[in-house]
Amino acid sequence: MIMNKKWSIVFWSIVIVSLLAGLIYWQTPIVLRLGVFIGGSWNVPSASTYELIDGIIAQFEQDHPGVRVQYDAGISLNDYSSWMSDKILEGSCPDVFLLIEGDLDLYKKLGVLKNLDPLIDSDLGFREIQYNPNTLSLASDRGHQIALPMECNPDMMLVNTSLLRQEGIPIPDESWTIDDLYTICQKVSRDKDKNGVLDQFGIYGYSWEHAFDAFNVEILDSEGAFQLHQDPFKQAITYLKELKDLHHGVEPTKEDLDSGKVAFAPMSYAEFVTYNPYPWRIKRYSNFDWQCLPMPANSSNSGFSGGSFLYMGISSRTFFSDLSWDLLKAFCCDTKNQKEIVFNGLGISPFVLDESNGDVSLYYEQIGISSSLIDLIMRKKPRPNIEIDPPADLILDSKIKELIENEDDIDLSLIELEKELNNE
Amino acid sequence: MRAYYRTIDRLRAGMIVLNYAIIMLYASVCLIGTKYLIDRQTSLSFLTQLSHIPKNPLLVFIGCFGLYALFVLHVVKNTVLTPFLFRDLVMEWILAYGIVLLLNMATQSIVLLVIVDMICPRRPLKNKEIYEIIVFSILLYIGSNYALMQKFFPMSDLRSYFTIFSSWTSSILLLFRSLLEGINLLLFIIIIAYFLINQYEEKESIAQELDMVNQVNAKLRNYAALSEKIAQDNERKRIAREIHDTLGHALTGIAAGLDACLVMIEKKPELVKTQLQKIRNVVTEGIQDVRGSLEKLRPGALEEHGLQGALQKMINEFMAVSNVEINLSWQMPRIDFEKTKEDVLFRMIQECITNAIRHGHASMINIWIQMDQNDPCQMQVIVHDNGKGSASIQPGYGLMQMKERISTIHGTLYYDGSDGFVCKALIPLQKGEFDD
Q: If DSSP codes are grouped into helix, strand and coil, which group holds residue A226?
């Protein structure tokens, strides 16, 4: 009996303490933590991100009295992954946070992200249809939506129209293919001052990733093993070899591009916009005219769309899933904020372009990109995520470069490389 | 037996201390390791090694400390003398499993402690309880196994925190951890072995005692049979002697007298008359002798000690052979009972005591023998026991017999089984019985 009494005292004191704690907790405002990085989402300078984020937060706090949103300022993109992993290890993961593509697979594996399906299903205001379906599909895990796309930064092809006009070559339309690219490159690559060294080039900065996108190469099979011995892969390598051979061993430089001696150069949307800020339109490439085309594929409208996506997700450990969902929606679903993102030059909105956002189309037109081009790119299947842990990624990169350089039998090398990578 | 419990308690105390060390080792390595990783800026590469998002290490540390404190508070109160309660065990399971969950099932050491508490209880268990304990032990062990549960409930492996430090520190930590867990396992095995040996010995000694009891029982039975036989023989001899001394004597006298009558009836018929008178006297004497002999066959005690003494003797005998407490309250003036009355009262009380023990399982019987306050010419005998009584009484052979006997001495018998069992007899007394 004495023991029982003692125990009931212990029990009741625990209950009272937790009730008090709950009361104190209830009195304090709810704090949502936001994980963002600043200073340009795509490694290009940008000044307006703080203002944009602060504006969205202010609006959110106004709509949700008693809720405050906090974020750590001053984290750059390069430090962001490491900062996030610190927070995850400490168990203080932000409630809502930006997600860069490289971390997505790790977070999927660790279960860092909250399954958004229940929130989406219970939210009548959420319209899946306003998104380009491809942008949603990458942020899903076994059929569950685990993050929403906030902005996209697809690859595009910069075309030096002055050079093409000078060579008498018509400018290709948006449905051009890699064969068109090769033909034009072949025509423009030549030694203009006849000094024996090539001084006008077809293309600058075309990497094997771009070629893989063009040939729909998927180097990982469904189990995550490397599968290199396949026709599209070989075609892509052969194509890269041929393209390289056009330059007769001379590599064009950035200066060649800037001075208008290169016909084509792949470039991300963000790079493009940063060098071409609306509304001032100060042209970096001032000594030639240019325009943008989609990246060519081996047939029109096929191929993957390369580039990167920026997502936002909710922590699986959050205590305030509904509030977090509202905050997430403020960034990713609110039409006004999405327009702000576009107007600030941060990236392309994952929303479908239609009549309802004519001002966005207008913005694109003003920076020299047709909205039909944006639409075309966004409708393409996104590049399959090839998150490869080190050191396999380094080996893959150097081996593919080696393959392009070498004249060896490609089949044999591929089999060996596949074996080597799968044993890593 | 006490030495056994003391040893088990000491070993168990060792396990309790060890478990504290093991649990806090895991919690602190997790806490310090997280800080170390962040300081070294290697959190991302560590994160890629994990299979699931880790818990807040500070929460794990504080939670483990708090839960283990509660666990110890709960466990140490179960000493040798406290009764074994299933409720206590369930509480222990819950606390232990809370710790196991906080540590992401990195260690099962505390489960071993709980299993010890389950299988070494302080009292013999029923079969059903044993099965429950076995099932729960297995469930708890499986439910706290990382390798198994990880497939269904993904969680991070706390053991990977041990290898993040410099190779020297890591190997010291790993060594320390294996040492602690090894000793804990060893203690567990020792306790189980000790428990099994003790169980075996206990069983052995019980078997021996049973054997001995059986032997004594057999002897006792033989002896009882023998003494019964002897008593029967003695009784037969006594009866034979009585018959010889009384009836034999009288009948012989009668036969001799009748022979004399046969001779005299022709010659001196008037003498036959006196002779027959003599024979009649012999017959009367014979009858008296026979009555005397029959009286000698009454209970010996009654003959020797009178009713009060005989009752006390019988009570002592009952108390000696059973656990029942019998009180006799004798409040009667000096009285000389008729012998039949003594017999009937003695038999009635004997029957009541037998019933109280046999049917009522009573532990206390009170007997009052006193004068009736309302009627000075009447005495009352009350026998009250604290047994289970009987709500509705169906008089059996014993009660019927008692009633009939009481009625032969003009008495009445009442009984009631609502509170234990009460028998009350009212018996009228004759003037001559009061001893002035």
A: strand
